[in-house]
Amino acid sequence: MTQAEKEQDNGKEKEKERDKEKEKEQQRGVKRPIAPPAIPDPLQEQIQSNFIIVIHPGSRTLRIGRATDTLPIILPHVIARRHKQTGQPKYEDAWLLRDGLNKTESNEQRQNGLKMVEQAIWSKKMSNGVRRTPVSAEQARSYNCQIRPAVLDSSYRVKWTNTAHQPPHLVGEEAVYVNPSDCYNIHWPIVRGQLNVHAGPGGSLTAVLADLETIWSHVIQKQLEIPLKDLKYYRCILLVPDIYNRPHIKEVVNMLLLNMGFSAIIVHQESVSATFGSGCSSACVVDVGDQKTSLCCVEDGVSHRNSRLCLAYGGSDVTRTFFWLLQRAGFPYRDCQLSSRLDCQLLQHLKDTFCHLNQDISGLKDHEFQTRFPEAPALLYQVRLGDEKLQASMGLFYPTTFGIVGQKMTSLQYRSQGDSEDPHDEHYLLATQSKQDQSSKSAADRKGISRPGGGLDGEMSAQGGIGEPSDLGRGCGSGGSGAGGMKGETEFGTAQGECLMGAGELEEPPSANLSRKTAIMSQFESKALGLDKAILHSIDCCASDETKRKMYSSILVVGGGLMFPGAQEFLLHRIINKMPPSFRRLVDNVEVITRPKDMDPRLISWKGGAVLACLDTTQEMWIHQREWQRFGVRMLRERAAFVW
C-alpha cells in the first residue's frame, strides 16, 4: 500500500469517527451551533480602461478622451446656439475682453506696470554679462506705419461654417467660425476655471449646464464614436480646479451621472492629476491657463489646502497686453479688434509665435504674419518688433501691466457654505464639537468646585446644570455662537469669494478670527500677486520645513500660458533671487520643471487623469449612479480623494 492510499484510508476513518460522535450527541440531546453557509468573497470588479472617459474642461479648451488614448480630443470649449425667435438680439461672450479694463485708472496702471517691466529688463544682465540695451517703441513705429500688406494666392480660403441646414447648435471650431451675421449666440460655458454664470442671455446655471452637456455629448458621440445610449457601460473621471465651487461641482456630477447616464464617476483635482501625469510624487504645481493661474502644493497625492491659490489672469491677458504693445509700435494690421473672434484667434497665434522670456534676444527684428479670413483675400504683413515680445510675457510677473482695475485678482479656498442634502458636514461636526467642548468644560468646572451642601445638592445642581432650559439655551447659544461664527465666515467667504482655513481657528473668538481673516483677505485683494511671488507664498503656506524643501526642489509648471522660450530659466532665476535666505542653505537645488518627460504641458493633467483610471487605489473612489441617486452630494464627501 502506498503512502497516499494510507492517508486516504486514515481520512475516511476520521470522518466515520466524527459521524459517530454526532449521532451520540444527538441521542444525548446536545445542540451544536449551525455553521453558516460559506459566503464567497466578492470578486473585485475588473474595470477596463477603454471604458473610462477622462474629461478636463478648461476655460478655452476642452480635453476629452478614453483613458487608453495616447492623446485626447482637443477643441475650443465653445457652443453656438441658434436663436429660437427671429429678430432676437445677438449675444456673444467676450474672448479677450473682461471687466475692469475701461476704468479711468486702467491706462495709468498699465503704464506703471510697463515701467516696472522695463526696469526689471534693464537690471538683469544678459548671459555675456552686458546689460540689455532698451529699444523704444518709436523706433519700430516709424517703420511699421509705412507697411502695406501683400496679397497672397487666394486659392485656399477660410470659410464660414455652413448654417444653411439651420442646426440648433454648433460646437468647437464650427462655433468659432459662425458668421456674425447668422442668428446664433456664442457661449463659453467656463470662464476663469468656474462656470460662466452671469446676468446676460444664456448665463443661468441651468443654461450653462445645458451647454456643457451638449458640448460633451457632441464630442463623445461624433469624435469618440460612442453612442449616448451606451454611456451606461462607461465611467467618467472629471478633473476640477483646485479651488472649486461646491454647488457647481455637485450640479456637474449630477448632469454626468443622471442626465448623460455614466455608470460611475471620480472627481479629482487638476494639481494632483498633474503630479500623476508628470511622474512627480511631490511638487508645487503651477497651472498657467488661458484665463487663470492656479497654484497648489501636492505631497504624495494629497493637495495641501492652505497652499491653494488662484490668480485671475493667464495667457489671454498676456495676449491682450501684447496687442496693446503692438498698437504702440504701429501694428500694420490696423483693423484688428478685440471684439472679433477671428482677430482674437490671430492675436493668440502671434503671441504664441513671437513672445519669449529670453533676455539674450535683444534689438529690433523683422517678422512676418498672414491673415486669412472668410470673404477676404489672404494678406501677408511685415512687422518690426523690439522689446514688446519680452514685455508682454513679463506681465505674468508684473500683473499691473494688464491694466485690470476694481477686480478681485487673488482667491483662496473658501469654507463650505453647507448643503441641505448633506446635513452631517463640517458645520455639523464643528458645532457638535463646540457643544461637546463646552459641556466637558462645564463638567470639569463643577467637579472642581466642592459644595458644602451635601451630595443631594450636588446631584441636583448637576442635573440642573445639564437639564435646565436656561442652561440648555446657553449651551445651544454657545453652540449657536460657534455656528454663528461659522456662518459669519461663510457669509464672509461668499461676499469675498474666498475664506481661509487654519488649524487653530476654533480656539479664537469669532470676532478676532473674523478680523484676522479680513486683514489677510484685504492684503491679498489689494493687489495682484506676480507669478513668482505667488509660488513663494504657496510654498510658505506648507506646514513643515521638510515639505517646503520638497516643494522648492520640484516646481512643476503645466498649462499653456507659460510656453515661452526661456521661461524655465527665467522663472528659476526669479525664484532663487526671491526665496527666503534660510531656505537657500537648506534646499540643495531649486528645480523648475516645464516639460516633464518631454510632454506637452497642456496635456499633463489630462494624462494624469488617464493614469488615475489605471490605479488599483482608485477602486474605492468611484461614485456609482445608484449611490448618487440615493445619497447625493454626501458621496463626494465620503469618496472624493480631497477634503470636500
TrEMBL record:
<feature type="compositionally biased region" description="Basic and acidic residues">
    <location>
        <begin position="1"/>
        <end position="28"/>
    </location>
</feature>
<dbReference type="Pfam" id="PF00022">
    <property type="entry name" value="Actin"/>
</dbReference>
<dbReference type="InterPro" id="IPR043129">
    <property type="entry name" value="ATPase_NBD"/>
</dbReference>
<dbReference type="InterPro" id="IPR004000">
    <property type="entry name" value="Actin"/>
</dbReference>
<feature type="region of interest" description="Disordered">
    <location>
        <begin position="433"/>
        <end position="491"/>
    </location>
</feature>
<feature type="compositionally biased region" description="Gly residues">
    <location>
        <begin position="474"/>
        <end position="487"/>
    </location>
</feature>
<feature type="compositionally biased region" description="Low complexity">
    <location>
        <begin position="433"/>
        <end position="442"/>
    </location>
</feature>
<comment type="similarity">
    <text>Belongs to the actin family.</text>
</comment>
<protein>
    <submittedName>
        <fullName>Actin-related protein 8</fullName>
    </submittedName>
</protein>
<feature type="region of interest" description="Disordered">
    <location>
        <begin position="1"/>
        <end position="41"/>
    </location>
</feature>
